[in-house]
Structures are given as C-alpha cells and as structure tokens.
Write a structure and sequence with these properties.
This protein is an all-alpha fold and 85 residues long. It contains 1 helix and no strands. It has one helix at residues 2-84. The radius of gyration is 36 Å and the shape is rod-shaped.
Length: 85
C-alpha cells in the first residue's frame, strides 16, 4: 500500500507541476498580449492628443474670425444708425 500511496503522490505532484508550467505559459502569453495592447493605446492616445490640439487651434482661429466679422457688422449697423438719426 505504501508503494501505491507514493506513486499516487508522485502523480499528483507531477500534475501540479504541469499545471504550474501551463499557468506560467498562459500568464506569459497574456502579458505579451497586454503589453501590445498598451502600446497600441499609447500610440492612439498620442495621435488623439495631436488631433485635439489641432482642433483647438482651428476653433480659436474660427472664433477669432467670427469675432472680427461680428465687429464689422456692428460697425456697419452703427454707421447706418447714425445716418438714420
């Protein structure tokens, strides 16, 4: 019986060792995939920041242009109001 217990124990330990090896392989693969995804996210984030900065510049330019046009219209309205008076 002792021999059977030893054999069973050894088989159980071998199974545990195999499970640990498989877990390590899966963990390594998961880590590689995760790092690749992080790299893609970082690249995308940099691109989005550049795009947002460009849009901000365009919005400021558009707002400045709009303000200049409104000022021109206000000046024309003022001139017309002064003529009518």
């Amino acid at each position: 019986m002792s021999d059977t217990v030893e054999n069973a124990t050894i088989e159980i330990l071998k199974g545990i060792q195999g499970s640990i090896a498989q877990l390590r392989a899966e963990t390594t693969a998961f880590r590689v995939e995760t790092l690749a995804r992080f790299d893609k996210l970082e690249a995308s984030l940099r691109k989005d920041r550049r795009n947002a900065a460009g849009m901000l510049v365009m919005m400021r330019a558009t707002a400045g242009d709009f303000d200049a046009r409104v000022s021109e219209v206000e000046e024309r309205v003022t001139v017309l109001e002064n003529r009518a008076s």
